[in-house]
Design brief:
This is ABC-2 type transport system permease protein. Keywords: Membrane, Transmembrane, Transmembrane helix. The chain has 508 residues and is an all-alpha fold. Helix content is 72%, strand content 0%. It folds into two domains: 244 residues, no CATH class; 243 residues, no CATH class. The protein has 22 helices and no strands. Helix 3 crosses helix 8 and helix 19 runs parallel beside helix 21. The protein is globular and about 70 Å long. The N and C termini lie far apart (63 Å). The relative contact order is 0.08.
Length: 508
């Protein structure tokens, strides 16, 4: 920590100014946290859980986003031949001695003062602060260790784009949610519900112990927080062992070669397929046209409903599930777009699973951010945040089930498409109806998989006493099952139908 104040004078001056600003901000935040003693218990609990979750999430995602260099990287100590377990324990303890952790400690003590004013027991306050600090430190340790395994000499344009998309997926929905709340001198019910959910998650459980609404909720948050600490500690010890026994691959040549996505993704068969697919999806106009048309078609589909008299608050919910359905449907004929390049996969003896999974990466990278941004906007236009979890379940079921069924369709029933370089609106003649049947089956299958979640969501929209969290898990579960099954079946068929796929690629 003192070494940070050595070196070039300008750099030392900037760091010193940053430390002064951080100290001042910490003092202000600590006074505000202690001032929660004058607020209501509900307000204090909500602020504690939300702020604690945000801080913990920052420890988890901060290192990879900022490309921070870990001064306690286990590989720095490899020259003295340490044993992995003692080294992991020592580095974990040293991780508590850092400026960010000391700031969190000060804020935690200030919050504990406010908790005590609202009747929280000393044991609950101590457990909350200790588990909160441990969770932050372990998230940072594990995050930096994972980053060290795939670290590149410099951040590429593609990697920066991925980070920006990740930030967009988190910031936009949260901003829309907070901006839609009605503040009338009390904590909005939606915010209280969000805090209650976060208190049962790994990032917020530790901060929900002291002022839990009931003894059962306090015990539940404590169990989740303790389990999170244990699992992260186990992951840290495993990662230290891997870092000490793994030789770092030279990557400077790959970066200098300008290989784009191939330099970012893992050097595995699945990573190679994903990199090639990303290059196509982001550059080939045939793919770009499909991506652009999906949101336009989804929005246009609401016009006939409005003309027919469907209430606006219902019609506005339809475009996002339609987009989820079409995004899952897009790769249903992905092999055909490869044209003769498909021979690389088959001639190299690639297994089916890497091919199937790698081809889904671009759709996930494009579809998830668009859905994450548009769904909160649709819910705000509808006016009831209570149905948001249910809508997430419906969209997840349509999207994931579509991807799983598309993984089968692209192998079983590929059909001719415009060749590379041709106009995306130019379609070749087809001699059969297999392509039409495949398209229809993928859509029908995705809708069928999402129908239970859609029914529960419809009941919630109509005011029935339906738990929207149940609709969320039903949709996510159904979509995940179809996705896993579809990838497995598609992988087996890809290996079995290699010759026919080569004949199809050569013929079209």
């Amino acid at each position: 920590m003192l070494g940070a104040l050595r070196g070039d004078r300008r750099e030392v001056l900037r760091r010193a100014i940053g430390i002064v600003i951080l100290i001042a901000a910490t003092v202000v935040a600590a006074r505000s946290a202690a001032g929660l003693a004058d607020a209501s218990p509900l307000t204090t609990a909500v602020v504690t859980v939300l702020a604690g979750s945000a801080v913990t999430l920052g420890f988890a995602v901060g290192p990879p986003v900022t490309a921070s260099i870990d001064p306690l990287d286990p590989r720095r100590f490899a020259v003295v031949g340490p044993e992995p377990r003692p080294l992991a324990a020592a580095l974990l303890l040293a991780g508590f001695l850092s400026v960010p952790v000391l700031v969190v400690l000060v804020l935690g003590v200030s919050l504990a003062i406010a908790w005590g004013a609202h009747g929280a027991s000393a044991w609950a306050s101590v457990a909350s602060v200790v588990l909160g600090l441990a969770t932050c430190v372990l998230f940072a340790r594990v995050s930096m260790a994972l980053g060290a395994l795939v670290q590149r000499p410099r951040q590429s344009r593609e990697l920066v784009g991925v980070y920006l998309i990740a930030v967009l997926v988190v910031v936009v929905p949260v901003g829309v949610f907070l901006g839609s709340l009605e503040w009338r001198g009390v904590v909005p019910s939606q915010l209280a519900s969000a805090a209650e959910v976060l208190a049962w998650t790994p990032i917020g459980a530790a901060w929900g112990i002291a002022l839990a609404p009931s003894a059962g909720a306090a015990v539940g948050s404590f169990v989740v927080a303790l389990a999170t600490v244990v699992l992260l500690a186990l992951a840290w010890f495993v990662l230290v062992d891997v870092l000490l026994t793994t030789t770092r691959r030279p990557v400077a040549v790959r970066e200098r070669g300008g290989l784009g996505w191939f330099a970012i993704l893992p050097g595995t068969p699945g990573g190679a397929v994903a990199a090639r697919s990303l290059s196509y999806w982001l550059r080939d106009r045939r793919y770009l046209v499909n991506v652009i048309i999906v949101p336009i078609a989804a929005v246009v589909s609401t016009v006939p409903l409005l003309v027919a008299g469907v209430p606006f608050e219902l019609a506005v919910l339809l475009p996002v599930p339609i987009m989820a359905l079409f995004f899952g449907w897009l790769p249903h004929n992905d092999l055909a777009y490869d044209s003769t390049a498909l021979w690389m996969h088959i001639a190299s003896g690639m297994r089916g699973a890497p091919d199937r999974i790698g081809r889904l990466v671009p759709v996930l990278l494009i579809g998830i951010p668009i859905l994450a941004v548009t769904l909160p906007l649709a819910v705000v236009a509808h006016g009831r945040w209570a149905i948001f979890p249910a809508m997430v379940g419906v969209c997840a079921a349509l999207f994931l089930a579509g991807l799983g069924l598309s993984s089968i369709s692209s192998v079983v029933a590929p059909y001719a498409v415009s060749r590379p370089g041709d106009s995306p609106f130019q379609q070749p003649q087809r001699t059969g109806s297999g392509g039409v049947v495949a398209q229809g089956l993928v859509m029908v299958g995705a809708i069928a998989a999402a129908s239970p979640a859609a029914w529960l969501t419809w009941q919630a929209i109509n005011g029935e006493t339906v738990d929207t969290i149940i609709a969320l898990w039903v949709g996510v579960g159904a979509g995940a099952i179809v996705l896993v099954a579809g990838v497995a079946i598609g992988a087996a068929l890809f290996e079995r139908r290699g010759t026919r796929l080569m004949e199809f690629a050569e013929a079209t």
